[in-house]
Amino acid sequence: MNLELESELGATRLCAVSLPALIGRDPACDVVLPSWRIARQHASLLQRAGAVYIQDHGSLTGVQLNGKRVYDDGPLRLGDVLVLGGFKLRITGFGQEVPSRSDGAVSSLKSPLVAPEQPSFVLEEPRLTAQGEQGFFTSGQADLPVSDSELFRQEQQRLHQALLSALELERRDLSRVSDKQLEQEAFDCLGRLIQAQCAVPKHEQARLQASVCAEAVGLGPLEPLLADTSVSEIMVNHYDRVFVEQAGRLQAHPLVFSSESALRAIIDRILAPLGRRLDISSPAVDGRLADGSRFHAVLPPIAVKGTCVTIRKFPKRRLGLEDLLQTGSLSPEMAYFLQQAVQRRCNILVSGGTGTGKTTLLNVLSTCIDSGERIVTLEDAAELQLQHSNWVALESRPANAEGQGQVDIRSLLRQALRMRPDRIVVGECRGAEAFDMLSAMNTGHEGSMGTLHANTPRDALSRLEGMVLMAGLDLPLLVVREHIARALHIIVQLSRLPNGKRLVHEIVEVTGIEAQRIQLQTLYSYRPEFGFTASGLRSEYVSPSEGQA
User: Fold this and answer.
1) pTM to 2 decimals?
2) 167-224: per-residue pLDDT in tens?
3) Which intervals hold domain FHA (predicted)?
4) Are 308 and 440 within one domain?
5) How many separate domains does the chain show?
């Protein structure tokens, strides 16, 4: 089978392989693509019934066939283009004159682009890239890239420290230097350091220069992960142990930091514009990145194995109910009901476990609010992205080093009531602010919404009762329940299936109190064997006939 291979730099090479052919970064593969985006055994070209098929081995970056991600697809045709982690493989022929597989290497059908004793092709002049890496591919007999070796890691650490010393970042007023100027200065300085002394082979020095520079003045390995729209969550358990969530599933990622100090320096750069700190006296911190992603970090000894970072990303494109319908997260009847409930100013509580999509659903429901209404949102870390011009976003603030200046959600809620809001949206209820939120819902701010962590609607009510009691008003439990029953109209329960899919598991209506217990009626629910079903019970806010329209 004849292929035209194109690297991330645009260099091409013609080669031929016999089938079956294994593609990956491992030197034993038939087609070797040495890049951190390529798994050791990424995919295979297989022959079935006289035709050729491509099979993904469960790789992180996957396989695309003519622009569409595939897992086991074929038959492949002449001119088809396969994309694997930045490399392009174009099918140029299915000739029978394939080379022997006795040595397991990729052979060239035509004259090679470079001399055999040289690397597969020469890299361009060093330049800073968004990914911090310049890829290339070699024949099956080549050694594993130096970036996978201990030598590369040692040089990263040495050059990182040398660059920081040369730039004297801690003594400079960085507010007067643009990010691009600082990046270029660091890149040029690093080039001189590498030219003076570097143990890494010449063809790997461009990769080394870009990765060290990104780690010293940027976000290092986080940059390509933040740019990857398929990644929804990034988890750094240790500086050399990174996991990501893609399509609801957790997977280890080959990107790592060069050292603990490099990871700490990147955290400090993230926190500096936020005015927050992370040190022994304050070993945990929350914040948000410039793109709105939620950021959380914990230091040792709280994090036993080393500094731990978690980043929750949010979709760049603002989603609507139609997007949830396309992904099968709810039924058309449920979508219509929620739209009507928002437009008819029902007070809605979104409940669910961690990572079930509570904030995403809150954003989606906000698209149903009339553009003429004024909305005030309250959050610990600003995540909501509403599409309204008359929207005020308030964010809580922790205490400073002296224990002063704290502004909690409850204080923000009192300020919000003075801003003439039509609706109040609380990002997440965690404590005594629940009482104030319910009071606002009961005093002319109908149509307000909030979220909390709970596994069932009944659990959500129990948690809400506990939070109201935390307000310290010494209210009888029955009074608390009456307060909740009058304020809340709808509870939307979210869940995540074992395969990672997020969906609306249940929609229930609060119908009042009977025998000193808050009464609920289920309107819609999800069952694995039946899918989304309607109970047939009549809602006080949206009639069954409308809900089924």
Assistant:
1) 0.62
2) 765 555 555 666 677 778 778 888 888 888 887 777 777 777 777 887 777 788 888 8
3) 21-70
4) no
5) 3
